[in-house]
Specification:
93 residues; alpha+beta
Length: 93
Amino acid sequence: MKSINLDTILVPNAACPVREIGDGLIIMAPTGTATHTLEELGAFVWRQLDGQRTLRQVAEAIVSEYDVTLDAAAKDLCEFASQLVAAELVGAQ
């Protein structure tokens, strides 16, 4: 897959069961061998990944919701998105 950048559009892997736990999420890897826990911010990002929004739009939503600069949000988001892709929890549109 090409590198993750702010123009990337991601969509959750439909083969990954997701359960809400408080403000966070628990996501089962598609292989069923691992679970991934997302705290409040990670869950917020997950809910933004709808196959329509670019990571730039997700970063802007983070800035609107949390006390963070766009540069910091964009950098952290691209790193987080890369981890989600590596874990096969999301894929690029």
